[in-house]
């Protein structure tokens, strides 16, 4: 049996390769992919060749271990149906709709314990948002918003939209978002006058007025390291800045020589592979996944799917995201 797998082969080059599937192990299952989601953050760094060569892709996910180097099969949002089960696997898995952290591929073989059963209330398209929703849950947990706080979210890509949607459920005094693309500002869950263009001449002034002299809590989710200077300028004394963006090899001068020195602002790095140490006694990955599934049911993020491409059209999909990001929010591959 053959499968089609997407490989990043060089900066701005992708290739769909037909490969033979290995024999199914006794403790393994074969999954036929229905759809998978492109990560506009991490995958675009891989596509553009802006990733650190000495860093492991993800040490906590078996299908993503290894270094960032070409050729690279990458991706982590696959939804599919179990088509075969090994002799030691419970036959009840057969025919189940499942989620897996797998690269973009028409079929894959994995162990049953690496699969997540998708709730019956969710469509395959919605289930593709699980990794980003788990990220959003992690970000909010790391930020720990407090009743009545003034909160700012920089970046309204998918992670920013999901994070803002979760924050919108809190009794905050005000929630302000920012993105340079009108499509994403219009999609933000806040009132339109509370979603600003960070490139506008009076952005900081307008944001300060809405935040009443500064955010208690700021999330930097734009993927643009220059936004850190906006975060520092718009966060008040003793506030917190949660940095969820991964910048890869992007470099920028962060201005720490001004008011930051006396501000007692806390910079918090947040990444979904782990759980904050202060929560580990009560939270594990299973509990966080459960929260993410329930959040997907409430928020219904499929409304942010702007494009669907067949996996054979992958090069066109990445080119669109690279050259015209203002036209996209979430892109899905179909198989």
Distance between the amino and carboxyl termini: 16 Å
Integer-rounded radius of gyration: 20 Å
| Count of β-strands | 15
For the largest beta-sheet, the strand count, sense and barrel status come to:
7 strands, mixed
SSE string, helix = H, strand = E? EEEHEEEEHHEHEHEHEHEHEHEHE
Instruction: Characterize the overall form.
Output: globular
What fraction strand?
Answer: 25-35%
Number of helices: 10
Average pLDDT rating: 94
Computed structural class: alpha/beta
Helix fraction?
A: 25-40%
Low-pLDDT residue spans: none
At a glance:
This protein has 335 residues and is α/β, with parallel strands linked by helices. Helix content is 26%, strand content 26%.
Describe the protein in words.
This protein has 335 residues and is an alpha/beta fold. The protein has helices at 42-48, 124-127, 130-143, 158-167, 182-187, 203-211, 227-234, 260-263, 285-299, 314-323; strands at residues 2-10, 13-20, 28-37, 78-85, 97-100, 107-111, 116-117, 150-154, 174-178, 195-196, 215-220, 235-243, 266-269, 305-310, 330-334. The strands form 3 sheets. Strands 3, 4, 5, 6, 7, 14 and 15 form a 7-stranded mixed sheet that branches. The chain has a 6-stranded parallel sheet with strand order 10-9-8-11-12-13, sandwiched between helices. A two-stranded antiparallel ribbon has the order 1-2. Helix 8 (260-263) links the parallel strand 12 (235-243) and strand 13. The longest helix is centred in the last third of the chain and has 15 residues, at 285-299. The two termini are 16 Å apart.
């Amino acid at each position: 049996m053959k499968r089609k797998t997407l490989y990043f082969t060089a900066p701005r080059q992708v290739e769909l390769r037909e490969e033979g599937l290995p024999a199914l192990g006794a403790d393994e299952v074969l999954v036929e992919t229905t759809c998978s989601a492109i990560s506009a953050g991490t995958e675009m760094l891989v596509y553009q060749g802006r990733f650190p060569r000495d860093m492991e892709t993800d040490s906590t996910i078996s299908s993503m271990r290894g270094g960032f180097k070409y050729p690279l099969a990458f991706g982590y949002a696959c939804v599919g149906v179990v088509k075969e089960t090994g002799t030691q696997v419970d036959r009840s898995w057969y025919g189940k709709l499942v989620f897996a952290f797998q690269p973009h591929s028409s079929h894959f073989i994995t162990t049953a314990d690496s699969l997540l059963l998708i709730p019956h209330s969710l469509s395959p398209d919605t289930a593709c948002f699980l990794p980003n929703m788990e990220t959003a849950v992690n970000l909010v947990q790391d930020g720990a918003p407090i009743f009545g706080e003034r909160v700012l979210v920089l970046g309204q890509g998918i992670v920013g939209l999901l994070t803002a949607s979760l924050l919108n459920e809190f009794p905050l005094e005000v929630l302000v978002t920012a993105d340079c693309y009108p499509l994403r500002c219009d999609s933000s869950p806040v009132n339109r006058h509370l979603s600003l263009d960070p490139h506008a001449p009076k952005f900081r002034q307008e944001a300060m007025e809405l935040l009443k002299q500064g955010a208690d809590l700021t999330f930097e989710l734009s993927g643009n390291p220059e936004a850190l200077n906006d975060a520092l300028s718009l966060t008040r004394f003793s506030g917190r800045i949660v940095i969820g963006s991964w910048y890869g090899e992007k470099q920028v001068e962060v201005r720490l020589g001004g008011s930051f020195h006396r501000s007692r602002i806390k910079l918090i790095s947040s990444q979904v592979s782990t759980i904050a140490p202060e929560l580990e006694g009560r939270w594990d990955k299973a509990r966080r996944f459960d929260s993410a599934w329930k959040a997907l049911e409430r928020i219904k993020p499929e409304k942010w799917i702007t494009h669907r491409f067949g996996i054979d059209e992958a090069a066109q999909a990445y080119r669109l995201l690279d050259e015209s990001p203002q036209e996209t929010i979430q892109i899905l591959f179909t198989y």
